[in-house]
Write a structure and sequence with these properties.
The strands form 3 sheets. A 5-stranded mixed β-sheet has the order 5-9-2-1-12, with no helix packed on it. It has 2 domains: 129 residues, Immunoglobulin-like (Sandwich), CATH 2.60.40.680; 32 residues. It is extended and about 75 Å long. 25% of the residues lie in helices and 41% in strands. Strand 1 and strand 2 form a beta hairpin. The protein is of the alpha+beta class. The N terminus is likely disordered.
């Protein structure tokens, strides 16, 4: 038992990563090549305050960006991708009230961008940057997908298998010690 607990803790330590900020994304297909991109910004660490961010959309995969929604205390805009300049499009958002940044441990939902996705399959995760009030990049990374139901079912199936194996091992151990 102790060996399994040690293995589980070691595995969790190896696989867990820390982030300064997390941008969670969910793509929903509306019709044809039209998609809605919903974003949630989570402040998990440095910087202690987030006042702005930019999400980039690859110029070879996305076109026709538009702001669908933005929280009341954030000012958001989009810049269209440009194939001729090899320049990605982007969604940019800044806190407009100076005293209301996103603090450590807080999250902000309500950001939504409409896009036309011209690639194959589902849209990929997209890069983002966290910026300060002077537009200095404080952190950059890739958006994190919201887990799909299939992933959750796969995790549930794996956990069920671990519980069943543990119970079998426990019942076998009791039978062996009783004889």
């Amino acid at each position: 038992m102790k060996r399994w607990m040690l293995f589980a803790l070691l595995w969790a330590g190896i696989t867990c990563t820390s982030h300064a900020a997390v941008m969670v994304v969910s793509f929903s297909q509306l019709a044809g090549d039209q998609w809605q991109t919903d974003l949630v910004l989570v402040n998990d660490g440095t910087p202690e305050q987030i006042t702005g961010f930019t999400v980039y959309f690859d110029e070879s995969l996305f076109t026709d960006l538009s702001v669908a929604s933005s929280p009341a205390n954030w000012d958001s805009l989009v810049i269209q991708p440009d194939l001729a300049l090899a320049s990605p499009g982007f969604f940019d958002s800044l806190v407009i009230a100076p005293g209301s940044p996103l603090l450590l441990g807080q999250q902000q939902a309500g950001f939504s961008v409409l896009v036309r996705y011209v690639g194959a399959g589902s849209p990929p995760m997209v890069p983002f940057e966290i910026v300060d009030a002077q537009f200095n990049v404080l952190f950059s990374g890739l958006t994190t997908p919201i887990p799909e139901p299939a992933s959750a079912l796969l995790l549930l199936g794996g956990l069920t298998g671990v519980v069943v194996a543990r119970r079998r091992y426990a019942s076998t151990s009791r039978l062996c010690s009783a004889t």
